Every structure is written in structure tokens, then in C-alpha cells.
Amino acid sequence: MASAFWTLEDGRGFARRWSGMAYMLELITNELKHIAGAEDFYNYLEWFVIREEKGDEYNGFGGFIRNDENIMFDIDLRTFTPANRAYFWGATQKALIKLIKQKDEKNEGIIFLLTTLLDMHKRIKKGEDPMELNHMNNIESEPTEKLGPGWK
After folding, report:
1. How confident is the model over 126-132, as a mean pLDDT?
2. Where is this region: Disordered (predicted)?
């Protein structure tokens, strides 16, 4: 059952169990470290990566607890600047390529998730109806928040 949700640029949703989303976010964030210009976005997104070795604990409903603060895995990409979204997608592609090159069976599940996420992104770029591949029953309305670095 899905417990974490990411809203993509056209309002479609990508939803999975918290553990898959947490691992994907960790992989994507790790790749952001190596993208020139993405340093501020990396520092922002790193906050949302669960670090159990540092005492973070799953909260039971799609996020984790760090120092008595609930941090959720729910992300709306539309709240990020266009540049940060480009960094996100570039890092996602790099994470997928790295896993594929490892040729390790244990990565098949996360490869499937990253491939599906990138497929959704390609469909958005083509202007496809968001309901053609959407893990939610509706299209999310446009957010009013602007999150992360780069907004003026």
C-alpha cells in the first residue's frame, strides 16, 4: 500500500510504500552531489533523506521522525524551481544508470520504480494526458508554495 506520494509537473502522482520512496530519494540525492550547480538543491533535499544510522525512525505513515520532528516523503516537484526540477530529473537518470550497470538482481525493484518515474516524466514532456499513467485517482491542483533554493 502506498504511503508516500510525489506530485509531478502536470499534477499526476507517483506513489509507493515509504521504503521504496525513501531509497529512491536517497539515490537521487546522492547523485545531486555530483551535478555542477545543484549544491544548494542537494543541501535542501538531503534534509528529507532518512538516516537511520543517525537515529531517524520511520513514523508509520509515510515519513520519519528526526529529533521529534515529523519529516514526510511527500514531494510536489512543482514547488521547486525549473532548474531544481532539471537537477532532480538528471540525478534520477544517473541513479538509474548506475543501478543498471551494477547488474545486481536485488536492484530490480528499485530499477522498476526509477524507470516508471522517468517514464512519467517523458510522458509529461510529450504532453500526454496525466491520467494515462497516474498512481492517484485525480490530478493534483497547482500548489501555491515555492520550496527549496533558487526562488526570488
Report:
1. 96
2. 132-152
